Amino acid sequence: MKVFVGLLALVALVSADHLYDDIDWTTVRPAHERLQLPENIRKLAEQSKPLGRIVGGTEAVPNSIPSMAALLLTAAEGIFFCGGSLISPSFILTAAHCLDGVIQVQVILGAHRWNELEGSQIRRFTNSFTQHQAWNPATLVNDVALINLGEPVPLSFAVQLIALPRHQDVTNSFNGASARLSGWGMDSDAATGVSPVLREVFTAVQY
Protein backbone atom coordinates (compact mmCIF):
# COMPACT_ATOMS: atom_id res chain seq x y z
CA MET A 1 0.00 0.00 0.00
CA LYS A 2 2.84 2.40 0.91
CA VAL A 3 4.51 1.66 -2.44
CA PHE A 4 1.23 2.38 -4.28
CA VAL A 5 0.73 5.69 -2.46
CA GLY A 6 4.35 6.61 -3.17
CA LEU A 7 3.88 5.90 -6.88
CA LEU A 8 0.74 8.05 -6.95
CA ALA A 9 2.63 10.92 -5.32
CA LEU A 10 5.45 10.55 -7.84
CA VAL A 11 3.02 10.55 -10.78
CA ALA A 12 1.30 13.66 -9.39
CA LEU A 13 4.65 15.42 -8.99
CA VAL A 14 5.79 14.54 -12.49
CA SER A 15 2.43 15.63 -13.92
CA ALA A 16 2.60 18.97 -12.10
CA ASP A 17 6.15 19.61 -13.33
CA HIS A 18 5.12 18.68 -16.87
CA LEU A 19 2.21 21.11 -16.82
CA TYR A 20 4.48 23.81 -15.44
CA ASP A 21 7.23 23.20 -18.00
CA ASP A 22 4.75 23.32 -20.88
CA ILE A 23 4.24 27.06 -20.38
CA ASP A 24 6.35 29.50 -22.38
CA TRP A 25 6.41 32.34 -19.84
CA THR A 26 7.49 34.90 -22.44
CA THR A 27 4.16 34.53 -24.24
CA VAL A 28 1.93 35.06 -21.18
CA ARG A 29 0.04 38.34 -21.62
CA PRO A 30 -2.12 40.44 -19.26
CA ALA A 31 -5.77 39.47 -19.60
CA HIS A 32 -6.89 43.08 -20.11
CA GLU A 33 -5.23 43.02 -23.54
CA ARG A 34 -8.04 40.70 -24.68
CA LEU A 35 -10.69 43.31 -23.89
CA GLN A 36 -12.35 44.71 -27.01
CA LEU A 37 -13.37 48.09 -25.61
CA PRO A 38 -15.89 50.27 -27.46
CA GLU A 39 -14.25 53.40 -28.89
CA ASN A 40 -15.88 55.76 -26.38
CA ILE A 41 -14.77 53.63 -23.41
CA ARG A 42 -11.25 53.25 -24.83
CA LYS A 43 -10.83 57.03 -25.25
CA LEU A 44 -12.13 57.66 -21.74
CA ALA A 45 -9.66 55.11 -20.35
CA GLU A 46 -6.78 56.79 -22.20
CA GLN A 47 -7.78 60.24 -20.91
CA SER A 48 -8.00 59.00 -17.31
CA LYS A 49 -4.99 56.70 -17.52
CA PRO A 50 -3.72 57.41 -13.98
CA LEU A 51 -7.13 56.42 -12.63
CA GLY A 52 -7.89 53.59 -15.02
CA ARG A 53 -4.97 51.28 -14.35
CA ILE A 54 -1.85 50.94 -12.25
CA VAL A 55 1.63 50.78 -13.79
CA GLY A 56 4.89 50.58 -11.87
CA GLY A 57 4.93 50.45 -8.09
CA THR A 58 7.73 48.82 -6.10
CA GLU A 59 8.60 45.20 -5.43
CA ALA A 60 6.69 43.88 -2.41
CA VAL A 61 8.39 42.06 0.44
CA PRO A 62 8.00 38.33 -0.37
CA ASN A 63 4.84 36.83 1.21
CA SER A 64 3.83 40.17 2.74
CA ILE A 65 0.49 40.08 0.87
CA PRO A 66 -0.61 36.48 1.57
CA SER A 67 -4.13 36.91 0.17
CA MET A 68 -2.82 37.62 -3.34
CA ALA A 69 -3.47 35.04 -6.06
CA ALA A 70 -1.78 34.78 -9.46
CA LEU A 71 -4.09 33.42 -12.16
CA LEU A 72 -2.88 31.74 -15.36
CA LEU A 73 -5.82 31.65 -17.74
CA THR A 74 -5.97 29.17 -20.60
CA ALA A 75 -8.02 30.36 -23.58
CA ALA A 76 -8.16 29.45 -27.26
CA GLU A 77 -5.71 32.27 -28.10
CA GLY A 78 -3.12 31.26 -25.52
CA ILE A 79 -2.35 31.80 -21.84
CA PHE A 80 -3.17 35.07 -20.11
CA PHE A 81 -2.55 36.50 -16.66
CA CYS A 82 -4.72 38.10 -13.99
CA GLY A 83 -4.68 38.62 -10.26
CA GLY A 84 -7.21 37.81 -7.57
CA SER A 85 -7.76 37.71 -3.82
CA LEU A 86 -8.43 34.73 -1.56
CA ILE A 87 -11.73 35.56 0.20
CA SER A 88 -12.33 32.09 1.68
CA PRO A 89 -10.36 28.83 1.68
CA SER A 90 -12.33 27.77 -1.41
CA PHE A 91 -12.93 30.97 -3.40
CA ILE A 92 -10.91 33.60 -5.28
CA LEU A 93 -12.40 37.01 -6.10
CA THR A 94 -11.27 38.41 -9.45
CA ALA A 95 -12.48 40.48 -12.41
CA ALA A 96 -15.08 39.09 -14.79
CA HIS A 97 -13.11 40.22 -17.86
CA CYS A 98 -10.29 37.90 -16.79
CA LEU A 99 -12.51 34.87 -17.40
CA ASP A 100 -14.10 35.72 -20.76
CA GLY A 101 -13.51 32.75 -23.07
CA VAL A 102 -11.34 30.97 -20.50
CA ILE A 103 -11.21 27.15 -20.49
CA GLN A 104 -9.09 26.53 -17.40
CA VAL A 105 -7.51 28.52 -14.59
CA GLN A 106 -4.29 27.73 -12.75
CA VAL A 107 -4.45 29.46 -9.35
CA ILE A 108 -1.11 30.18 -7.66
CA LEU A 109 -1.24 31.15 -3.98
CA GLY A 110 1.67 32.04 -1.69
CA ALA A 111 3.77 33.31 -4.59
CA HIS A 112 6.27 36.12 -4.95
CA ARG A 113 7.74 34.95 -8.26
CA TRP A 114 4.74 33.42 -10.01
CA ASN A 115 6.83 31.87 -12.82
CA GLU A 116 8.99 29.85 -10.43
CA LEU A 117 8.12 26.90 -8.18
CA GLU A 118 8.52 28.36 -4.68
CA GLY A 119 8.17 26.29 -1.52
CA SER A 120 5.48 28.61 -0.16
CA GLN A 121 3.19 28.13 -3.16
CA ILE A 122 -0.06 26.24 -3.52
CA ARG A 123 -1.16 25.57 -7.12
CA ARG A 124 -4.65 24.49 -8.13
CA PHE A 125 -6.24 23.88 -11.52
CA THR A 126 -9.95 24.55 -11.91
CA ASN A 127 -12.57 25.15 -14.57
CA SER A 128 -15.21 26.10 -12.00
CA PHE A 129 -15.84 29.84 -12.02
CA THR A 130 -18.79 32.24 -12.20
CA GLN A 131 -18.92 35.72 -13.69
CA HIS A 132 -21.41 38.30 -12.41
CA GLN A 133 -24.70 37.57 -14.16
CA ALA A 134 -24.95 41.23 -15.24
CA TRP A 135 -21.32 41.56 -16.42
CA ASN A 136 -21.26 43.82 -19.48
CA PRO A 137 -18.01 43.83 -21.52
CA ALA A 138 -19.23 46.84 -23.51
CA THR A 139 -19.44 49.10 -20.46
CA LEU A 140 -17.23 47.18 -17.97
CA VAL A 141 -20.15 47.24 -15.51
CA ASN A 142 -20.22 44.45 -12.89
CA ASP A 143 -16.66 43.37 -13.69
CA VAL A 144 -16.45 40.81 -10.89
CA ALA A 145 -16.23 37.01 -10.73
CA LEU A 146 -15.59 34.09 -8.37
CA ILE A 147 -13.27 31.13 -8.92
CA ASN A 148 -14.10 27.92 -7.05
CA LEU A 149 -11.04 26.03 -5.84
CA GLY A 150 -13.06 22.98 -4.84
CA GLU A 151 -11.14 21.54 -1.92
CA PRO A 152 -10.24 24.28 0.62
CA VAL A 153 -6.61 25.36 0.63
CA PRO A 154 -4.64 25.17 3.90
CA LEU A 155 -3.77 28.58 5.33
CA SER A 156 -0.18 29.41 6.26
CA PHE A 157 2.14 32.39 6.72
CA ALA A 158 2.15 32.75 2.92
CA VAL A 159 -1.54 32.00 2.24
CA GLN A 160 -4.18 34.00 4.13
CA LEU A 161 -7.68 35.38 3.55
CA ILE A 162 -8.01 39.02 2.58
CA ALA A 163 -9.72 41.32 5.09
CA LEU A 164 -13.28 42.07 3.96
CA PRO A 165 -15.41 45.11 4.89
CA ARG A 166 -17.71 44.78 7.87
CA HIS A 167 -21.48 44.59 7.33
CA GLN A 168 -21.90 48.15 8.61
CA ASP A 169 -19.49 49.37 5.91
CA VAL A 170 -21.63 48.12 3.03
CA THR A 171 -22.63 51.69 2.04
CA ASN A 172 -19.18 53.18 2.64
CA SER A 173 -17.38 54.18 -0.57
CA PHE A 174 -14.05 54.60 1.29
CA ASN A 175 -13.44 57.62 -0.94
CA GLY A 176 -10.13 59.22 0.00
CA ALA A 177 -9.00 56.32 2.17
CA SER A 178 -5.48 54.98 1.73
CA ALA A 179 -5.34 51.74 -0.26
CA ARG A 180 -2.63 49.20 -0.96
CA LEU A 181 -2.78 47.82 -4.51
CA SER A 182 -0.77 44.78 -5.52
CA GLY A 183 -0.22 42.51 -8.48
CA TRP A 184 2.12 41.26 -11.17
CA GLY A 185 1.10 43.80 -13.78
CA MET A 186 3.42 45.66 -16.12
CA ASP A 187 6.06 47.65 -14.26
CA SER A 188 6.24 50.32 -16.99
CA ASP A 189 4.44 51.33 -20.18
CA ALA A 190 7.43 50.00 -22.11
CA ALA A 191 7.21 46.55 -20.52
CA THR A 192 6.59 43.66 -22.90
CA GLY A 193 5.02 41.34 -20.33
CA VAL A 194 3.85 41.00 -16.76
CA SER A 195 6.20 41.46 -13.82
CA PRO A 196 7.91 38.29 -12.56
CA VAL A 197 7.71 39.56 -8.96
CA LEU A 198 4.79 40.82 -6.90
CA ARG A 199 4.63 44.61 -6.84
CA GLU A 200 2.66 47.09 -4.73
CA VAL A 201 1.67 50.73 -4.68
CA PHE A 202 -0.13 52.87 -2.10
CA THR A 203 -2.75 55.33 -3.30
CA ALA A 204 -5.99 57.01 -2.26
CA VAL A 205 -9.38 55.54 -3.18
CA GLN A 206 -11.11 57.72 -5.77
CA TYR A 207 -14.81 57.09 -6.17
From TrEMBL:
InterPro entries found in the cross-reference section: Peptidase_S1_PA, Peptidase_S1_PA_chymotrypsin, Peptidase_S1A, Serine_Proteases_S1, Trypsin_dom, TRYPSIN_HIS
Signal peptide limits: 1-16
Subcellular location: Secreted
Pfam families linked: Trypsin (PF00089)
GO BP, one annotated term: proteolysis
Protein name per the record: Trypsin
Keywords: Disulfide bond, Hydrolase, Protease, Secreted, Serine protease, Signal
GO molecular function (one): serine-type endopeptidase activity
Location of the Peptidase S1 domain: 54-207
Organism placement in taxonomy: Eukaryota, Metazoa, Ecdysozoa, Arthropoda, Hexapoda
Species name: Popillia japonica
Subcellular location, principal: secreted
Cellular component terms (Gene Ontology): extracellular space
